[in-house]
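Why do we care about 3D structure at all? Because function follows from shape, and shape follows, mostly, from sequence. That is the central idea of this module. The next example makes it concrete: a single protein chain, its amino acid sequence, and then its structure expressed as tokens.
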Amino acid sequence: MNTTLQSAKMIGAGLATIGLTGVGAGVGIVFGSLVVAFSRNPMLKQQLFGYTILGFALTEAVALFALMMAFLILFS
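And the structure:
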């Protein structure tokens, strides 16, 4: 395989994984917001936890898309 193409694939895959940095920050924000909201109103524990899990799942979906893009770039 052409070395230029191989190095372009590596750079593209590296750039695709930059999205994982934002996901890490997003997950921290989601769970940090849960702690703040729970400390303000402990009676809403179940409802807050449900919203937190939904936010976590949507944030992690972005990570899976970024990882999928990186693998598609590398192995196609």
